[in-house]
């Protein structure tokens, strides 16, 4: 066995005896490192899990990118656009684009015999990817849309169903105000644009519950052809296109590429621009996580420094004897380097065990709950990533070992004569 490692092991074994002053300090040092590592693992798992779940729920309704008509007076009822097949093919040829789907939105009022509620109807076509919403279906099924028949089915949230006392297959009326040019009324040669009230009946096909109240309270899904008929649009005209990406981390570069393809006539908005307030909130959570991780690394390092300093002071006579036998300062420092490393390894082992164990239990049993009205989630989400765990361990090791040199500087001031004289 290496001489420095052998002496370090003996120091730690004696330091853990109950009659030694350093015994509780060593244990506290290991516990401090373990708790720091555990808190860091749990923090990064919860924060990244929370961000993933929130982003997933947002993109369920808005996708990663939206392409709309360029209109300085944007509203929920924008001007129609019609992409040619070549432009759509150019978009699909982009390596980071996973899926493209058409949509349209329109304001309406849901009405039953006793209640009414203002909503936004989102018209979707047969190209709509329901895989994002299917996990949140609580009753019934998603809409079944084909290219020819106009469906009268409607897909609503649990919040709206409860408020309007709606059940599956129940009929409800939806009232609209539709733009229409008044051909017989002109002013300075321009036709007035007026509005006409219209009403349509729908049947509840399914009910979803995402827990995201900002969308659940206002958004319902219908056949896109219904919106086209209400707005007097052609069969190829839509309000815009939603784009899903393979890699969310390439959101901004992909938006720039899509913008180059569609040209200046259309606007390309990212989900971060469409939901800026929510992403600002997620960025604040990132900052909080960085502060917690930094503090925990410092706590782990300070605990190790304290334990090491006590061990050095308690072994002052041993240091003096080793120096008297001809050991250089660097060799003595190696001994306490191995002491630090063994303390660190024990702390990391228990810290990883606690942190990963807690995350695994939360994934299995979901015992830590949240208020959906505040956090949009029912349970604390966990994203247990091996890469994150590895980086936490590497960062802790590097920081602690670098700070380890501070207490070992006292070794240079210990002389053999003084150490042996006062032993």
Care to describe what's here?
By secondary structure, this protein is α+β, with helices and mostly antiparallel strands. About 50% of the residues lie in helices and about 20% in strands. It is built from 15 helices and ten strands. It is elongated and about 100 Å long.
Write the layout of secondary structure elements.
Layout: H1 3-15, H2 22-62, E1 65-69, H3 85-92, E2 97-111, E3 116-124, E4 137-140, E5 153-157, H4 158-164, E6 171-187, E7 190-208, H5 213-216, E8 219-223, H6 224-230, E9 240-245, H7 251-262, E10 266-270, H8 271-274, H9 276-314, H10 316-324, H11 329-365, H12 372-375, H13 386-403, H14 405-408, H15 416-421
Parallel strand pairs: 3-8, 5-7
Antiparallel strand pairs: 1-9, 1-10, 2-3, 2-6, 2-9, 4-7, 6-7
Helix pairs in contact: 1-11, 2-9, 2-11, 2-13, 9-11, 9-13, 11-13
């Amino acid at each position: 066995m290496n001489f420095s490692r052998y002496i370090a092991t003996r120091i730690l074994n004696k330091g853990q005896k109950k009659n030694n002053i350093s015994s509780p300090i060593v244990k506290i040092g290991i516990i401090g490192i373990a708790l720091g590592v555990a808190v860091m693992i749990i923090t990064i798992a919860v924060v990244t899990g929370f961000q993933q779940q929130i982003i997933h729920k947002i993109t369920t309704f808005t996708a990663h990118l939206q392409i709309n008509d360029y209109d300085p007076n944007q509203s929920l009822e924008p001007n129609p656009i019609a992409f040619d097949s070549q432009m759509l093919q150019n978009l699909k040829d982009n390596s980071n684009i996973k899926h493209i789907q058409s949509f349209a939105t329109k304001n309406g009022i849901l009405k039953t015999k006793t209640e009414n509620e203002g909503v936004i109807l989102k018209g979707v076509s047969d190209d709509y990817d329901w895989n994002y919403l299917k996990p949140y279906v609580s009753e019934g099924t998603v809409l079944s849309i084909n290219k020819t028949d106009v469906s009268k089915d409607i897909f609503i949230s649990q919040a709206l169903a409860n408020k309007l006392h709606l059940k599956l297959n129940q009929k409800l009326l939806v009232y609209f105000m539709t733009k229409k040019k008044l051909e017989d009324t002109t002013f300075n040669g321009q036709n007035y644009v007026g509005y006409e009230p219209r009403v349509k009946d729908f049947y509840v096909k399914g009910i979803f519950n995402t827990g995201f109240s900002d969308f659940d309270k206002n958004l319902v899904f219908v056949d896109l052809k219904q919106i086209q008929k209400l707005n007097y649009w052609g069969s190829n005209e839509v309000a815009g296109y939603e784009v899903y990406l393979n890699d969310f981390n390439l959101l901004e570069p992909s938006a720039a590429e899509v913008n180059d393809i569609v040209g200046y006539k259309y606007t390309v908005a990212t989900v971060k621009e469409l939901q800026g307030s929510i992403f600002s909130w997620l960025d604040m959570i990132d900052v909080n996580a960085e502060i917690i991780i930094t503090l925990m690394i410092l706590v782990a390092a300070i605990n190790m420094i304290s334990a090491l300093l006590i061990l050095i002071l308690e072994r002052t006579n041993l240091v003096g004897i080793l120096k008297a036998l001809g050991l250089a300062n660097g060799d003595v420092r190696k001994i306490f380097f191995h002491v630090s490393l063994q303390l660190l390894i024990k702390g990391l082992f228990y810290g990883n065990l606690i942190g990963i164990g807690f995350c695994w239990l939360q994934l299995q049993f979901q015992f830590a709950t949240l208020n959906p009205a505040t956090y949009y989630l029912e349970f604390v989400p966990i994203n247990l990533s091996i890469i994150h765990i590895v980086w936490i361990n590497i960062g802790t090791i590097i920081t602690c070992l670098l700070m380890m040199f501070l207490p070992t500087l006292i070794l240079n001031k210990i002389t053999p004569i003084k150490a042996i004289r006062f032993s």
